[in-house]
Design goal:
By secondary structure, the protein is mainly alpha-helical. The protein has one domain (38-440): Amino acid/polyamine transporter I (Up-down Bundle). The chain is built from 22 helices and no strands.
């Protein structure tokens, strides 16, 4: 597909190993060769990281908005949506990582190579809208975190978020390990914060386990929030990003080494997605235990949740909540910018410097702040937009990973393809049902 602009060769990029990564790459290749005598955990360490970066999309501020509203309005009812979404996320991220490992190309590049030009342009436009919705949620969340912690105006907090994001992205020049370490640490802050919140709110564990496995809705609003939770959990930009993170991290082509690398990445995905799923569940459980079951069902915004937590659970609860929101917003805003670059570079073979992309994509967020729209409601609606974009990421992913001529030894088994197709069908059906509910008011 001929497209003007500054082009990048992914193979050339893959060949560049930065000094900060050389030890990790050397250790990983030694382990994959089968010659390492290290223990299993020591062998695993060089391969951990990419899934944790992708998992940031699963604990971003959009999750705060949908989970808090879902818990406050419907108690533990929608907990099963989080469980189901997290299982879907594990499968989808596994397929995405496998595509990058097997082919050396990310999902956007595969679309450009295999689809007609008009389809590629249409998918790029759609994914750019998805990226804007993603940036909106992440940028607003970090700004709210600064606002709740330090009391600064939202517009000032938004500008501070932009500066912090630039600093985090600046670590990329030193290789993949430094930014993986920072992002993983921020995910750890979010997870630790919600461990504290869960201990403080003393949930009813019997009801928690019941609603975790019993599907149930209660009207249009619950479906809207359910689809929002799905969109906030299985996110399109994370699917594109994970394949890109794996395509040039550890490059091997021997069939046995490819299989071994994929097995290590499976562990990375399972650990990272489990942590993300538990954090999401803790968000909804906290909102349900603290608000819904105490009669505070009208807690509809992140700011209200923060204000109400302090008198109900003590001053520490509000502070911990704000810290977790800030860590979530900063990490996901950085990762969202990385994903946006992958989408543009992959579909169009154009490269735009991250600082320019950040300056452009922060505009909708600053507009939302400036005109005074409700940040939490905006966050929830942005997650619904993401959910509608999911089929256009998942369906091509399944199409490519089922083809032996593309995947080689890492091609999907028939069972994997069937399960992934069912997941895609569920997402499409949920979105169609939501559209019908909102249009005809069933």
């Amino acid at each position: 597909m001929g497209t003007p602009g500054k082009k990048l060769d992914s193979v050339a990029v893959a060949a560049q190993v930065k000094p900060g990564d050389s030890a990790t790459v050397r250790d990983a290749k030694h382990i994959l060769s089968g010659k390492s005598k290290k223990g299993w955990l020591a062998q695993l360490l060089p391969f951990l990281g990419p899934a944790f970066i992708a998992s940031v999309a699963y604990v971003d501020p959009g999750n705060f908005a949908t989970n808090i509203q879902g818990g406050a309005k419907f108690g533990y009812m929608l907990l099963w949506v989080i469980v189901a979404s997290n299982l879907m996320a594990m499968l989808v991220q596994m397929l995405s990582a496998k595509l990058g490992i097997a082919t050396g190309h990310n999902l956007a590049e595969q679309c450009r190579m295999h689809f007609p030009a008009p389809v590629v342009w249409a998918m790029w436009a759609l994914m750019e809208l998805v990226a804007m919705a993603t940036d909106l949620a992440e940028f607003l969340g970090a700004a709210l975190g600064f606002n709740l912690l330090f009391g600064m105006p939202l517009l000032q907090a938004g500008l501070l978020t932009a500066v912090a994001t630039f600093l985090i992205l600046g670590l990329e020049r030193y290789g993949f390990r430094p930014i993986e370490a920072v992002i993983t640490a921020l995910v750890g802050v979010v997870a630790g914060s919600y461990l504290v919140e869960t201990i403080l709110d003393k949930p009813h564990w019997g009801l928690v386990f019941t609603h975790a496995f019993v599907p149930q809705f209660a009207g249009t609003e619950s479906v809207l929030l359910g689809v929002g939770i799905l969109g906030a959990t299985v996110m399109p930009h994370a699917i594109f990003l994970h394949s890109a993170l794996m395509q040039d991290r550890i490059v091997v082509r021997e069939p046995e080494q490819l299989k071994r690398l994929f097995r290590f990445e499976l562990v990375d995905v399972l650990v990272a997605m489990t942590v993300a799923g538990l954090v999401n569940a803790a968000m909804l459980i906290m909102a349900a235990s603290t608000f819904y079951y105490k009669g505070l069902t009208e807690i509809g915004t992140i700011e209200e949740a923060h204000r109400t937590l302090q008198p109900l659970l003590g001053p520490a609860a509000g502070w911990v909540f704000a810290v977790s929101l800030l860590a979530s917003g900063l990490s996901s805003s950085s990762v969202g910018t990385m994903a946006g670059q992958v989408i543009m570079q992959g579909f169009l073979h154009w490269h735009i410097p991250p600082w320019i992309r950040r300056a452009v994509t922060m505009a909708p967020s600053l507009i939302v702040i400036a005109i005074g729209l409700n940040p939490t409601r905006t966050l929830v609606l942005s997650q619904v937009v993401l959910s509608f974009g999911l089929p256009f990421a998942i369906i091509p992913l399944i199409m490519f990973t089922r083809r032996r001529d593309i995947m080689g030894v890492l091609v999907n088994s028939w069972l994997t393809t069937v399960i992934a197709s069912i997941v895609a069908a569920i997402i499409v059906v949920l979105n169609v049902f939501l559209l019908y509910q909102l249009t005809f008011g069933a």
